[in-house]
Design brief:
Blueprint: H1 3-29, E1 93-96, E2 99-102, E3 120-125, E4 128-132, H2 138-151, E5 156-161, H3 166-169, H4 172-178, E6 182-186, H5 188-193, H6 197-208, H7 210-213, E7 223-225, E8 232-237, E9 240-246, E10 256-260, E11 265-269, H8 285-298, E12 304-307, H9 318-339, H10 344-350, H11 362-381
Parallel strand pairs: 4-5, 5-6, 6-7, 11-12
Antiparallel strand pairs: 1-2, 2-3, 3-4, 8-9, 9-10, 10-11
The protein binds zinc ion.
Length: 382
C-alpha cells in the first residue's frame, strides 16, 4: 500500500473512532441511568499493562449498568476492585421465568473488569439451580455463587460450561469447591485442561489480577457432551428441560449450545457475538458458519438468544447474521489472497472492513482474526 493512502486510511480510522466514542458519550449521558456497580476506591490510572491497550479495556472512571440485558443499546461498564469481597454479589438481570443473566463488560480482560468481560446465567428450577458458564476467574465464580444465593437458597445442581475459554470456564473451580455440583462440558474441554495452553493463559491472568486468580485449578467435567455434531444430551431438572447440543469445535476445543426448552431460551455461547467483533483464534470458521445456519434454522422461533458476549437478543437475532457476514467476508478475502499468492503479512495488513471500525474490539481482533483465517485458507486450499 502507498504510504499516502495508508496515512489517509489512518486519519479516516481516527475520525471514525472519535465519532463513535463521542456518540457513545452522548448516549451514556443522555438519560440512561448510571449506577455504581461496586463501591470502594478506584485503582490508580496511568499504569499500562503488558500487551493491553486502554482503548479495548474497561473505563475505570465510568460505572454504567444498562436498564435491561435484552436488546440493550449499550453494554455495561462495571468496574471491580482487587479488594472486593468474593461474597459480594454481581449485578444481574431477570431475562425470563426464574432465569437470570450476568451481563459482562465488552472489553479485553483487564485490571478494571478483572475478568468480568463475558456473560453467564442461571435458571432456578423446582429442584435446584442450573448455571450456564462460570465467568473468568475463581473469584468471579465465587461472586456468581453469591449472586445465585441472593435469588435462591436451592442447591446448585449443574454447571454447564459452554466452552473452555477462560472468560467462560475459569470460575468453575469455585463450583467444584462448593461440592455437589455436576459440571457438564464438551469432551474437548478435557483436551484443553491437559494442554499447555491452560498454563499460559492462567499465567497471563495471574500477571495482572493475581488476587482474583488465587486458587485457580483446572476442572475436569463430570458429564461430557460428545457424540455427533448437533446431537444433544438432555438434562431434566425439576420442572425444566435443558437440551445441550454439541456444535463441534467452531470456536474452541469444543462448543455447546444450551436450549432451555420450556422457556424457549437459547444460550448460544460464542457462536455469535453481540455488540462487539468476534474473536477467531481457535476452532474452525467453516464450522462456525454452518453452525450459525443450523442455529438460525433450528431455533427460528426462540424467544431469546443469549450470547457469551453482549446483550441477549430477540428475534430475528441479527447478531448471528452479522457475525456470520464478518466471518464469510474475512474467509473470502483471505482465500483470494492465498490464491493470488499474496504474502501473509500483506494480506493481514490489507484486511480492513471500514464499516466495522466503530464496533468494539475491532481494532484489537481484526489482525489476529485475519492471521488465523489466512492459515485456515492455506490449509483448505492446498
Ligand atoms: Zn467468550
Amino acid at each position: 500500500m502507498m504510504p499516502r493512502k495508508r496515512a489517509l486510511l489512518i486519519i479516516i480510522a481516527i475520525v471514525a473512532v472519535a465519532g463513535v466514542v463521542f456518540a457513545l458519550f452522548i448516549i451514556a449521558g443522555g438519560g440512561s441511568p448510571r449506577q455504581d456497580a461496586t463501591s470502594g476506591q478506584k485503582p490508580a490510572r496511568g499504569e499500562e499493562l503488558p500487551q493491553q491497550d486502554a482503548r479495548f479495556g474497561t473505563d475505570p472512571d465510568r460505572h454504567y449498568l444498562p436498564d435491561t440485558a435484552i436488546d440493550a443499546q449499550q453494554p455495561p461498564n462495571i468496574v471491580l476492585e482487587a479488594t472486593d469481597s468474593p461474597e459480594e454479589p454481581l449485578p444481574y438481570y431477570s431475562i425470563g421465568p426464574n432465569t437470570y443473566m450476568l451481563f459482562g463488560n465488552i472489553a479485553e480482560v483487564d485490571r478494571y473488569n478483572r475478568g468480568f468481560n463475558g456473560n453467564a446465567g442461571f435458571v432456578v428450577t423446582a429442584e435446584g439451580v442450573v448455571v450456564i458458564d462460570s465467568l473468568g476467574t475463581p473469584k468471579l465464580g465465587r461472586r456468581l455463587i453469591a449472586t445465585i444465593r441472593r435469588v435462591t437458597d436451592k442447591p446448585i445442581r449443574y454447571l454447564i460450561i459452554t466452552h473452555n475459554h477462560p472468560d467462560h470456564a475459569y470460575g468453575a473451580v469455585a463450583f467444584r469447591k462448593l461440592g455437589g455440583v455436576n459440571v457438564v462440558a464438551h469432551k474437548g474441554t478435557l483436551d484443553y485442561i491437559y494442554s499447555e495452553r491452560i498454563e499460559t493463559s492462567a499465567a497471563y491472568r495471574r500477571s495482572f489480577i493475581p488476587e482474583d486468580m488465587a486458587d485457580f485449578a483446572p476442572v475436569a467435567p463430570d458429564t461430557l457432551v460428545n457424540g455427533p455434531r448437533f446431537s444433544k444430551v438432555t438434562l431434566k431438572v425439576g420442572d425444566r428441560t435443558f437440551d445441550i447440543y454439541n456444535v463441534g469445535r467452531h470456536h474452541s476445543f469444543g462448543d455447546l449450545v444450551v436450549h432451555q426448552v420450556e422457556d424457549n431460551i437459547v444460550w448460544i455461547s460464542d457462536l455469535a457475538f453481540n455488540q462487539r467483533t468476534t474473536f477467531m483464534g481457535d476452532g474452525n470458521s467453516r464450522q462456525a458458519i454452518d453452525s450459525q445456519n443450523w442455529l438460525l434454522k433450528k431455533f427460528a422461533n426462540a424467544k431469546l438468544m443469549v450470547p457469551g458476549h453482549g446483550s441477549a437478543q430477540t428475534s430475528p437475532f441479527p447478531m448471528v447474521k452479522k457475525t456470520q457476514s464478518y466471518m464469510k467476508r474475512l474467509r473470502e478475502m483471505m482465500a483470494k489472497a492465498v490464491e493470488e499468492g499474496i504474502d501473509f503479512q500483506d494480506a493481514v495488513d490489507r484486511a480492513d472492513f471500514p464499516e466495522w471500525r466503530g464496533t468494539r474490539l475491532y481494532e484489537l481482533n481484526q489482525r489476529s482474526n485475519a492471521n488465523f483465517v489466512y492459515r485456515e485458507m492455506e490449509q483448505e486450499l492446498f
